[in-house]
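Run log, item B.
One chain of 259 residues. Sequence copied directly from the ordering sheet:
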Amino acid sequence: MENRRFVKRTPRTEEHNTENMIFGTRAVIETIKSGKTIERIFLQKDLKNELTQELLELLRGEMVTVSKVPVEKLNRLTRKNHQGVVAFTSPVDFVTLHNIVANSYENGLAPLVLILDRVTDVRNFGAICRSAECAGANGVVIPTKGGAMINSDAVKTSAGALSHLPICKEDSLVHSIKYLKDSGFQIIACTEKTDKLVYEADLSIPTAVIMGSEENGISDELLAAADEKLKIPIVGQIDSLNVSVAAGIILFESVRQRS
């Protein structure tokens, strides 16, 4: 019988940028108190102690995604003593939608805002933000939960655009759309579920453009909230575009019209 050597394998850590990782309850609390922006927190399920309660109280009203996960998930993030809490800081500071709207009317051009509905790929997010900044967009609105993590990969893919482009996190994109409508914006949904082309719409007025997720497109409730549905004409055999490419096309059609 063949002799075999059995080696106990150490669990592999998941692919995350460790440069913006903080672990340990007290370390995360002090980071929040220092004013640094937290992008996401992974909290061990059923973890209950005084420090955890202090952390949760500190997070009330903050735009931070908190995911309650099994300890195995945390162990994959780091092999160090995480005490049931792992957080990732954000390389950007988030702004409010009110500030984006208020500032968007000051430069004399028709305001342009991008709404990303569950775009989860970090590199797609970075590329979209690069196009948005180049197109003079006034800001990008993303959901608090279900969007791409804004990390160093996103910053790198954006070619530095995330240092200049206001980013807003919102608990409800439906409420965000209503606020934008009340502020004088038309809401455009970029979707294949229409016959109207992007070139047929007036994008020279205050506009918010919704781009959908890589897998499912724009959710039904956001489609229903849009004033117009527009599509990009495709003549090849493949019937869809990468979301970052599609965003670039409609953004620069808006630039053409506003110019």
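Observations after the first pass:
- Residues 1-15 have pLDDT under 50 and may be disordered.
- The chain has nine helices and ten strands.
Flagged for discussion on Thursday.
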